[in-house]
Specification:
single chain, 439 residues, mainly alpha, Rubrerythrin, domain 2, Citrate Synthase, domain 1, 2 domains, 3-stranded antiparallel beta sheet, 18 helices, binds carboxymethyl coenzyme *A, citrate synthase activity, transferase
Length: 439
């Protein structure tokens, strides 16, 4: 634990091992908010035992100053600022600065940052050809995972992770280029020409432009849609030590370059239990088909043998409500109203599903509530974004969280390679038998 974590009134936890005369005192540290943590680093040395926490439900894997979640109270703070305030008053570029540098920028810092990110939005021209190697029907997450990893092959000048300047340029490049790569993955899948980034547009506008514009037609920004897109980006920008961020940190702890680390994060995000859930929600709603089928679907979800989950519901940390889901639901209504969509069967179905689930003992007793992914897909669909791009959009937003967490880790003097241990339950040592003597 580095010096900024404070001893919690010099509290310790005494652990003694039954059946032996050995015990140890483990220090307890307090963060600025949130539960205290027990520093178990000398546990193995003193008692010869490991801790066992599959899924890391009770493990703080690192010290961080970036994002705080109180899952019981439904609180999400970026650098101390509530997500509700940032979603309403800030924008994605300002939030990106906040996540990366820890403070809201002055007007001048914001302008410099905005220009810095904008300056890096183009990708190396040769990278275009990389896309041609993919099948047209490849999932865009597969494409962006490959292309982001390949950035390391193009930007040799910022691969020295020990140089703060190079780390910063790599961070700018990742934040700036990910929308270009994401939009091109989509354009490639539908056989349309790639649109080059436009630096006169905001981050969200430019992303929508590269996704939707074609060279043959003038493109008109719809401020309502770009504002909604910006808000979606803000809501997804960081979420402390979730699976993909922990993946980025673990990959980064080996000294791997940031492009490789973010590619690893994209791979982890893809799973339906994580970022892939927004795509899975729409597929689920389509499969349910009509509201009359909801009770049968809920019965299936509650049947352990069916392995069916109510996608977009539940969260490892939020056990009351997901504050992002609340904002997302409001945004969903706003976007549909602005687009003049009075009747959206998917939204009606989602709301009915939510109503039924929230009054069902199964969900109540397990504290399962809608998460950020429950309503995001409906907004994105209304905005004309294809389902296969939903998780890609999550990756675009989360890139700033990943690079901020990666930077923080590299700059932490107590950082070492991440190397968990295990509870081994396999065969104990035995001798090799030649095949003729087996069985
Ligand atoms: N539908 C039905 N049952 C559920 C669900 C769900 N969506 N989520 C959890 N449960 C049940 C689970 O079966 C378990 O029941 P029991 O105690 O009887 O065995 C209980 O609730 C506790 O669940 P858990 O699996 O121990 O919870 P977890 O913290 O390991 O998993 C989760 C969290 C998000 C992976 C899980 O809730 C889930 O798979 N949800 C659906 C996928 C989803 O929406 N993911 C997006 C998460 S938010 C965005 C992000 O961070 O990427």
């Amino acid at each position: 634990m580095s010096s900024s974590a404070t001893p919690a009134g010099k509290k310790t936890v005494t652990v003694s091992l039954e059946g032996s005369n050995r015990s140890t005192n483990l220090p307890v540290f307090s963060g600025s908010i949130g539960p205290d943590v027990v520093d178990i680093r000398k546990l193995y040395g003193d008692l010869g035992v490991f801790t066992f926490d599959p899924g890391y439900g009770a493990t703080a894997s690192c010290e961080s100053k970036i994002t705080y979640i109180d899952g019981d109270a439904g609180v999400l703070l970026y650098r101390g600022y509530p997500i509700e305030q940032l979603a309403e008053k800030s924008d994605f570029i300002e939030v990106s600065y906040l996540l990366m540098y820890g403070e809201l920028p002055t007007a001048e810092q914001l302008e410099t940052f905005r220009k810095g990110v904008t300056y890096h939005t183009m990708v190396h021209e040769q990278l275009r050809r990389f896309f041609d190697g993919f099948r047209r029907d490849a999932h865009p997450m597969a494409v962006i995972c490959g292309v982001v990893g390949a950035l390391a092959a193009f930007y040799h000048d910022n691969l020295d992770i020990n140089d703060p300047k190079q780390r910063e340029i790599a961070a700018y490049r990742l934040i700036a280029k990910i929308p270009t790569i994401a939009a091109w993955a989509y354009k490639y899948s539908i056989g349309q020409p790639f649109m080059y980034p436009r630096n006169d547009l905001s981050y969200a506008e430019n992303f929508l432009y590269m996704l939707n514009a074609v060279p043959a037609e003038p493109w008109k920004n719809n401020p309502i849609l770009s504002r909604a897109m910006d808000r979606i980006l803000v809501l997804h920008a960081d979420h402390e030590q979730n699976a993909s961020t922990s993946t980025v940190r673990l990959a980064g702890s080996t000294g791997a370059n940031p492009f490789a680390c973010v590619a690893a994060g994209i791979a982890a995000l893809w799973g339906p239990a994580h970022g892939g859930a927004n795509e899975a929600v729409l597929k689920m709603l389509a499969e349910i088909g009509t509201p009359e089928n909801i009770p049968q679907f809920i019965r299936e979800v509650k049947d352990k043998n069916s392995h069916t989950k109510l996608m977009g519901f539940g969260h490892r940390v939020y056990k009351n409500f997901d504050p992002r889901a609340k904002i997302m639901k409001e945004t969903c209504h706003e976007v549909l109203a602005e687009l003049g969509i009075k009747d959206e069967p998917l939204l009606d179905m989602a709301m009915e599903l939510e109503r039924i689930a929230l009054s069902d003992e199964y969900f109540i007793s397990r504290k399962l509530y809608p998460n950020v992914d429950f309503y995001s897909g409906i907004i994105l669909k209304a905005m004309g974004i294809p389902t296969s791009m939903f998780t890609v959009l999550f990756a675009v937003a989360r890139t700033v969280g990943w690079v901020s967490q990666w930077k923080e880790m590299i700059e932490d003097p107590s950082q070492r390679i991440g190397r968990p241990r295990q509870l081994y339950t396999g065969a104990s040592q035995r001798d090799y038998l030649p095949v003729a003597r087996r069985g």
